[in-house]
Amino acid sequence: MVYTFTKEERLNKGDFRGTRWKKGAETSHFLLLVHNNKEGRRKLGITIRKKTGGAVVRNRMRRLVREFYRLNKGLFPDRHDNLLKVKRVPEKLSWAATEKELHELLHVMNTF
RNA sequence: AGGGGUAGGCGGGUGACCGCGGGUCUACGACCCGAGGAAAGUCCGGGCAUCAACGGGCAGGAUGGUCCCUAACGGGGACUGGGGGCAACCUUAAGGAAAGUGCAACAGAAAGUAUACCGCCCCGUCUUGACGGGGCAAGGGUGAAAAGGUGAGGUAAGAGCUCACCAGUCCCGUGGCAACACGGGAGCUCGGCAAACCCCAUCCGAUGCAAGGCCAAAAAGGGGGCUGCCAGAAAUGGCAGCGAGGAUUGCCCAUCCUUUAACCCGGGUAGGCCGCAAGAGGUUCGGGACAACUUGAACCCAUAGAGAAAUGGUCACCGUACCGUCCCGGUCACGGCCGAACGGGAGACAGAACCCGGCUUACAACCUACCCCUUUUU
RNA sequence: UGGGAGAUCGUUCAACGGCAGGACAACGGACUCUGACUCCGUGAAUAGGGGUUCAAAUCCCUUUCUCCCAG
Questions:
Q1: Which residues 21-50 on A are within 7 A of strand B at the CB atom?
Q2: CA–C1' distance A72–B99 (Å)?
Q3: What pLDDT, in 10s, does the model give residues A39-76?
Q4: DSSP class of residue A79?
Q5: What is the C-alpha to C-alpha distance for residues A23 and A93, in angstroms, rounded to an integer?
Q6: A95 strand B contact, CB < 7 Å
C-alpha cells in the first residue's frame, strides 16, 4: 500500500461537468458519490459549500478528509471517481471523530 | 493596596515518522524554500497595463481649522479653537448663514423687514369696573429656540435710553509662518440648520491582471455599400461627397480609423506561454527636526507563487499564567498569605491569488515602559 | 474577482427630517344552534453601534446579513 496523494488522483474542473453520480453512502456530515471512470484509476474530489464556514474551517475539513483517504485508500472503490461532499462541518474538528465517522461511511459503502 | 490613562511587544518552541506545492541539479533520487498581523472588509491612495486622443466644455465625485511630512492619500505629526474629565488624558467633517433659495411639526400673540394673549402705565367717558384712544415690551405663559446676559441709574410705565462688568461684531496695535492669542477703541447690532440645496478653495481621464501581450486546433460564421465626375471598348481603377460601422465616460462639441479584391481582410473560442515576483524593507549608531519624517554608515534580512487553489496528520518532550492536592517550613489579627513538592495545563482572531502604503474591523493568554487619582504607613 | 441594490410588525408593501400606517395572518368579542362570511377591538416592527440636528426609519460614518449583474 502506497500512502500518497498526487495530482493525478484528484478530480479537476472538467471532471465535474456532465457526470452522472450514483449515491454511495451517507452519514450525518458526509455524502459519498461514485462514478465509474474510463481512466482505470481511483480518483477523489472533495466539495464544501461556502455556507458551511470560513476559509480556515473549510481548509481544515478538507485536509482531514484527504488525510483519511491517503491512509485508507484501499477502502475506496478502485477505477471509480469518488466525490465526497461535506454537508456540514462538526462543532469540533478533531482527527479522531472524523476518522471514526468516515470508517462508518465506508463500511456502509462496502457492504452493499 | 485599589482604580484609571497612554504607547507598544508577542501571536509557542524542539524532535521523530508518514504526506503535499514550487524550484535547482550530476534527476525513479538529493537539496533548498513554503501564510498573517491583520493574509479579512474592499473604505482610500500609488505602482503596473491598455485605450489613435493622459483634447475642450458642462455635468458628476471627493476633501474642508493652520503649518508640516509623505511617491500619494480621505493617511500621519505638531499646534490653535470648541466639548468632556478632579487629573493623567480623550474627543472634534472645525470654510462661508450682511451671495441667493429653502426648512423649523406641535404649542404659542409672534418663528425673522418681528409681534402683543395675560399684563403695566397715561388720557377720556360713564353705570366705578368696564369701554374707547394712545404708550411699553420689564414680568407671566408657549417652545429645542423669543432679538444680547447680570446689576444700577432713569421713567407715567418702560426700553442699550445711559453706565459698569461679561459675551458677540467691526477697526487698530503687539506677538506668531499661520490657525489664533493678548491689549485698546467704536457703534450699540443684524438668531439656528449648509452630515438641506448651494457658494468658495483644492484635487480627480477611464478601465482594471478575468488588465494586457504573443502563439493559435476543430467546426461554424462576418465584411468588402451608394452617388457624382474623370480614364477605359470592357472588366475595372482614381478622386470627391453621402451614408454605414467602429473608437472615447453621462451628455455635447471638435476629431480619428475602416470601406481592399476574387481571393483576401479583420474578428476570435477551446487550449498553451508570458505578465508572475529580492525593496517607497528592518535594526543599531551618528547628523537635522518638538514630532511625523529625513539623511549617512554598518549590519541583518528579504527569492511562497497555485491556476478550483500546496503549509497537513500522528506521537513525544519543554513550560508561563493559572487550577487542584498534600501537608513540610515560615508568618499570623487564626480568616488566610508566602515558599517548596506532586499532578493537570498551548487556547484567540483567522488562510496569500498582480504587488505595495494606509484606514477600518476581529483577536485568547502573556509581557514591557511611562503617567494620573484615592486611601494607608513612614 | 469586480460592479450595483437593499434590510420597516409573523408575511408583504407605505411613510416632503416632526404621533411609524395599511393589507393578509394571530388573538378577543358580536352575529349563528355550530362553523364560514361580515362587523368591532387588541397586541406586535425601523438590522447592530456611533455622530449631525431642538427632533433621525429618513442625513453621514461604520459593522453584519441578504439579493442581483459581468465573466
A1: none
A2: 84
A3: 667 888 888 777 777 777 888 888 888 888 888 888 88
A4: T
A5: 25
A6: yes
ipTM score of complex: 0.74
A1 CB less than 7 Å from any atom of strand B: no
**Burial class, A18, CB count within 10 angstroms (exposed 0-12 / middle 13-18 / buried 19+):** exposed
**Nearest nucleotide from residue A47 CA, by C1' atom:** B308
> Smallest CA–C1' separation from A53: which nucleotide?
B350
Measure the CA–CA gap between A54 and A21, rounded to whole angstroms: 27
Burial class (CB in 10 A: 0-12, 13-18, 19+), A82: buried
**Which residue in this structure is represented by grid cell 466539495?**
A47
Contact between residue A83 and residue A22 where contact means Cβ atoms under 8 Å apart: no
Q: CATH number of the domain at A7-111, please?
A: 3.30.230.10
**Separation CA A83–CA A62 (nearest Å):** 12
DSSP state of A30: E
